[in-house]
Amino acid sequence: MQDQPNYDSILNELHKKYDDINQDTETHLEGLLHSKPITYWDYIHTDALLSLQIQRTTLPDEMVFIGYHQINELIFKMILWEIQQVAENEDLNTVFFENKLMRVSRYFDMLSTSFNIMREGMDVAQYNKFRHTLTPASGFQSAQYRLIEFASTELINLIDYRFRKTIDRNTPFEHALEHLYWQAAGKDYNTGEKSTLLINFEKRYKEEFITFMKVYNTKNLWSRFKELPEADQKNEDLVKAMRHYDYTVNVSWVMAHYNAAKHYILGEDGDGEATGGSDWQKYMHPKYQKRIFFPELWSPEELDNWGKDV
């Protein structure tokens, strides 16, 4: 008779696991007798995922547009997941920090190159028909992307340049929110009146944003970097990873998005207007807004020329 496997060590570990949370091990093991084996489609929830691409028009290439943006939002979720691990790490070191930054950068590298799907993957005439059914919605309203910004840097680096001298760490978060750089894309420059685009966005996400801003005020990527010992802040690999992430997000990815929009909106059949009504060229191009997460890691010359060479 062949020797039977000995499961004593595993059973002891299971018993400890359930005992630690005041659960009965036998009850949980008995439950396994009646559970169904997992399948790929159940684990990934394939059917639910594939049911979310709902077109507003009969134009075939709208499916490309919807699917592409949903993929972006899934990637944004993965990025936030990685940043959260840095934010909450109680024993942060340069190796862990760099590893997470490069993971996030690879996600943004993928997002940057994927804009060819948008640029070359849709018929221009179709896009300029179905895009009008999206008004006043806009990619501007990606809440997860705003959360990535909040989680990456101190709020002052996201404030509109016109108001930075009037805002500091003692400024109420709600006031800071009103003066973030992207607010300019949703307001009349002369009157300050908010567009429907911005009104709808804030109605849905304002309270969530303020809560998130408070939470990440002291544990965003830049704040966590500054908590490291001085020697670690000079670690060449970590500084390189910080700079790569900053440039990838605020120049490479932004310009890939900008060029895709330019291809359609300023093309022969485009009308030059964003669906949300924003001054999208000045809002998106990095040389105007100079979105920079870690300005202290760049030279004065690099800061002055930010986005001008693309």
UniProtKB/TrEMBL annotation:
Q: Which keywords appear in this protein's UniProt record, sorted alphabetically?
A: Dioxygenase, Oxidoreductase
What enzyme category does the UniProt record give?
A: oxidoreductase
A Pfam family recorded for this sequence: Trp_dioxygenase
Could you tell me what this protein is called? Tryptophan 2,3-dioxygenase
Is Oxidoreductase a UniProt keyword of this protein? yes
- From the UniProt record, give one GO term of the biological process aspect: L-tryptophan catabolic process to kynurenine
Known EC number(s)? 1.13.11.11
Source organism per entry reads: hydrothermal vent metagenome
Q: Which GO terms describe its molecular function?
A: heme binding; L-tryptophan 2,3-dioxygenase activity; metal ion binding
